Amino acid sequence: MSAIDNLSTYFMKFPGIGTRQAKRFVYFLLAQDPRFVEELAREIALLKKSIAQCTMCFRFYPHLGGGSICDVCTSDTDTATLLVVEKDTDFESVRRSSSYAGKYFILGGTIPVLERDPASKIRIRELLTRIEQGAAEGLSEVILALSANPEGDFTREYVAKTLEPVLGQLGITLTTLGRGLSTGTELEYSDGDTLRHALKNRS
Amino acid sequence: MSAIDNLSTYFMKFPGIGTRQAKRFVYFLLAQDPRFVEELAREIALLKKSIAQCTMCFRFYPHLGGGSICDVCTSDTDTATLLVVEKDTDFESVRRSSSYAGKYFILGGTIPVLERDPASKIRIRELLTRIEQGAAEGLSEVILALSANPEGDFTREYVAKTLEPVLGQLGITLTTLGRGLSTGTELEYSDGDTLRHALKNRS
Questions:
Q1: How far is A194 from chain B (nearest CA, A)?
Q2: In this predicted model, which residue has the larger pLDDT, A147 or B1?
Q3: What is the ipTM of this complex?
Q4: What is the per-residue pLDDT for A182?
Q5: Where are the alpha helices (DSSP H) in chain A?
Q6: Is A87 in Cβ contact with B43 (below 8 Å)?
Q7: Which one of A169, A179, A198, B184 has the lowest number of neighbouring Cβ atoms within 10 Å?
Q8: Domains and CATH numbers, chain B
Q9: What integer pLDDT is reported at residue B66 of this predicted model?
Q10: Distance (Å, rounded) from C-alpha B158 to C-alpha B140?
């Protein structure tokens, strides 16, 4: 197998990349300046060394030689709320919006509707531990910020049911993001479910 | 800028990759086994060293310490025909089909219809040199195997017009791939242009 085919098989494992695009990536690299390719290789090799996974919220963060807990978890922001998101990019979206000031938790996935072992797909045990730990620091509300689609709904239900006894015991409220019209949505093209939520949550 | 953003900017330069997918690639790598990431970095770093560009046909080929001409150009296959394709993957498609046994030339692109400096987009000077060189070895036909779309048509016209005097002088024929129904095409969904070609080239 040539170096072209070899590198292609690596790119084919990337999310959303098929045989053709993987090959296109390799030929793209071959056509680049050698410096670009060298720097890319170096950045990839360095990635795991400079980025760590926070043991408290499970997000990836720049590891500057400090502890194993990220800057957001160690910061002295509001400890009363914990926002649970599916993945790192969701965390980034919320941060960018500057609409939330509390703590975070990365669930690490959603649960497919027919999944037999839901606990294997998300960090549910880790979330329970985080909530118990948070209770000692004044946690009063867990916000489930998952996608508004069937898999997100199913995951929300599973998490809610699993957390219920512990949350009840600790006196912590569980909430989810409000549903309605997204900004820029035209009424004409809105689905029935969105309109139902928008009417119910009118203000 | 963190290592995550930094690596993202590299992936954003890949063909067809936007901001979101570049980020997704980085988080995908962070979630992988460290060995996978290390091997990927090594493969990328090695790529340029193990693959060379043939100075005769301009395709990328595994460089095993030999000369600067690839195995297909040095092989003793038919030197009477030269197949001109746009890019390396087109060369691979033709090779895989086992439908052609002659020599190849990678044009390196096509010419956008409104391009002011067509010669800068393709290897037209290199093709002329290759043809003159081929004439000495019995080259009798140059086959333009470009895409059947407006840009391919425009490039074909430009190449044909540019090569005309030289080919005439050397007594070399210029042909293009036959047009008609692609295998699997349903007549019902064929466009007028395809049907016109299919009727004209009936056999």
A1: 25
A2: A147
A3: 0.81
A4: 85
A5: 3-11, 19-31, 34-50, 71-74, 88-97, 124-135, 150-170, 192-200
A6: no
A7: B184
A8: 3-47 (1.10.8), 76-176 (3.40.1360.10)
A9: 66
A10: 20
